[in-house]
């Protein structure tokens, strides 16, 4: 598409947008009586207007039914987590029995590493991207130490080439092949939180399996953002949070995926809890863990229903919009944002910013990370004062994410106009 840096062009794209009405389903934070430009869905998605209603339903059932709500609530609490299997299978690309909603992201990462990071004397290394999200780094480090190993000798980080910001797929595959038989686990973020780079998960998984290692992904910045086909890519496991692109509230309940070739294997070690026990005999309260032969077998405790109600409210909207439509708009939004930022550079005597997120739409999602070459902190703080909610990352990066459910092309035009006015 031949983009134009004009308000009329942006409004024209919005008028033609088949998803334009979905913005009305969310609360948009206000600035001086008008909608702010909210570009931090990569950190915390906005609240859907139906969220209060969904949570209130569970509060009302709790008030009127007490414990009987487990069976008699409008949405019985006992099987509440089962609501999500079909919805999430479409979002992450898997079979319904391969996905479960439980816990929080890093809890799930630890639980899955218990099952899929099983180091031996010969095969013990973890390969990940350099500058992975800190919580992932801490999880890797603590898991390695738990097994009596030294992180510096065990965790292999793949870094960009000198002078580059993102990783080349061939370099990732080369490192996997280089360490070969000593690799136990390859564990990347689906989308890097800092650069916004979308990794080639299919190729990474294939390379990991070729050397005899497991492949897993932290999809915190990928679930609900980019197109995923976890089952078809043969990914062994993955986990994600629900409060970014899935709009399910701060600290919302998380998700986990385990490939069908693993879910029926009782011999896979795991940390067990009673909610993962076979449903038909769970209440016999007998010793000896018998896991549910689906991803549910990794559950520990019963469902946090109030958090799950917020999750259901958001996913019902995602389902109504349709993932294919969201992906199409996401690509167009990100493309327009890249265009507007490049236009800003052209209008300045010197380059003032560098987009470190890949230009190729197959290598990015909603997020665009901007390395400010001049006056970065000043630009960010002025953006905030003028009603733009963005995100600052040291040393000099502004992260923005136009989300297809509630952001508009006019948002992007306004954002560019404000930056340009600051620099002028």
Condensed summary:
This protein has 424 residues and is α/β, with parallel strands linked by helices. The chain has helices spanning 7-15, 51-65, 69-72, 84-92, 105-116, 134-146, 151-154, 169-179, 201-210, 260-263, 305-321, 323-347, 376-385, 409-423, and strands at 30-31, 34-35, 37-38, 99-101, 125-129, 155-158, 183-189, 214-218, 237-240, 255-258, 353-355, 368-372, 388-389, 391-393, 397-400.
Strand proportion: 5-15%
- The total tally of domains equals 2
Q: What percent of the residues sit in helical stretches (DSSP H or I)?
A: 25-40%
Span between termini: 28 Å
Q: Give the overall shape, derived from the CA principal axes.
A: globular
What name goes with the CATH superfamily of the largest domain? Answer: Type I PLP-dependent aspartate aminotransferase-like (Major domain)
Average predicted confidence as pLDDT: 96
Spatial strand arrangement across the major sheet = 4-10-9-8-7-5-6
**Which architecture of the largest domain would the CATH scheme give at its second level?**
3-Layer(aba) Sandwich
Order of helices and strands: HEEEHHHEHEHHEHEHEEEHHHEEHEEEH
Largest sheet: 7 strands, mixed
Rg (C-alpha, Å) = 22 Å
In the CATH scheme, the class of the largest domain would be Alpha Beta
How many helices? 14
Task: Assign the structural class, choosing from mainly alpha, mainly beta, alpha/beta, alpha+beta, or little secondary structure.
Answer: alpha/beta
**Quaternary class:** single chain
CATH topology type of the largest domain: Aspartate Aminotransferase, domain 2
Give a count of the beta strands, DSSP E runs of length 2 or more.
Answer: 15
Low-confidence stretches: none
């Amino acid at each position: 598409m031949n983009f134009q840096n004009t308000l009329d062009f942006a409004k024209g794209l919005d008028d033609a947008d088949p998803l334009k009405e979905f913005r009305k389903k969310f609360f948009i934070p206000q600035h001086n009586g008008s909608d702010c430009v909210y570009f931090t869905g990569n950190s915390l998605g906005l609240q859907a207007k139906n969220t209060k209603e969904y949570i209130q339903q569970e509060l009302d059932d709790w008030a009127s039914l007490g414990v009987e709500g487990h069976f008699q609530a409008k949405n019985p609490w006992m099987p509440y987590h089962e609501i999500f299997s079909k919805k999430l299978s479409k979002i992450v690309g898997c079979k319904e029995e391969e996905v479960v909603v439980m816990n929080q992201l890093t809890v799930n990462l630890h639980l899955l590493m218990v099952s899929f990071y099983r180091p031996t004397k010969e095969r013990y290394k973890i390969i990940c991207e350099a500058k992975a999200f800190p919580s992932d780094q801490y999880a890797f480090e603590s898991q390695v130490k738990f097994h009596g190993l030294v992180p510096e000798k065990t965790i292999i980080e793949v870094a960009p080439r000198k002078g580059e910001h993102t990783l080349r797929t061939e370099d990732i595959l080369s490192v996997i092949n280089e360490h070969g038989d000593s690799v136990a686990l390859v564990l990347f973020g689906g989308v890097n939180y800092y650069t916004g780079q979308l990794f080639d998960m299919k190729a990474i998984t294939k390379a990991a399996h070729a050397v005899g290692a497991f492949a897993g992904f932290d999809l915190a910045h990928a679930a609900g953002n980019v197109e995923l086909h976890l089952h078809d890519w043969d990914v062994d496991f993955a986990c994600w949070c629900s409060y970014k692109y899935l709009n399910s509230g701060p600290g919302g309940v998380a998700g986990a995926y385990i490939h069908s070739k693993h879910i029926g294997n009782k011999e896979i070690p795991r940390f067990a809890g009673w909610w993962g026990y076979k449903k038909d005999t769970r209440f016999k309260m007998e010793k000896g863990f018998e896991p549910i032969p689906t991803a549910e077998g990794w559950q520990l405790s019963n469902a946090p229903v109030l958090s799950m109600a917020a999750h259901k409210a958001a996913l019902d909207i995602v389902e109504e919009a349709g993932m294919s439509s969201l992906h199409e708009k996401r690509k167009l939004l990100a493309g327009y944002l890249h265009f507007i930022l490049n236009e800003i550079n052209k209008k300045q005597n010197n380059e003032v910013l560098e987009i470190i997120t890949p230009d190729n739409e197959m290598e990015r999602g909603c997020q665009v990370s901007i390395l400010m070459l001049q006056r970065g902190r000043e630009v960010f703080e002025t953006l905030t004062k003028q009603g733009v909610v963005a995100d600052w990352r040291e040393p000099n990066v502004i992260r923005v994410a136009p989300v297809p459910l509630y952001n508009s092309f006019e948002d992007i035009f306004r954002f560019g106009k404000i930056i340009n006015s600051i620099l002028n």
